[in-house]
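Figure 2 data, in text form.
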Amino acid sequence: MAFYQVEVTDQVRYEIRQLPGHIRQRIFRAIQTLSQEPRPYNSKQLNTAKAKIELPLDMNFYRIRMESWRIVYVIEEELKLVSVLAIRKRPPYDYENLGDLVKNFN
């Protein structure tokens, strides 16, 4: 079984610290498990074509839904790297800023 390296930005660490305690613990555990299972059963691949975002073929956006919160991350298969880009509450979050997340990521 191939393990992935999980990268969490400083902004995401700040966002996690601002969460309510019970959600913070669940999100922290979900991020930890991404190294062993980057596509858990409750993850969903995001449609980058709808957002008019072009990614390399070995890179895909995913999200994990946890109650009303979303963990938005990207998987780079070639590097075996999972990069957590954002923790957002939905509603009102509707994935409109995926392009901005990509710009900040690169």
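Caption note: The radius of gyration is 13 Å.
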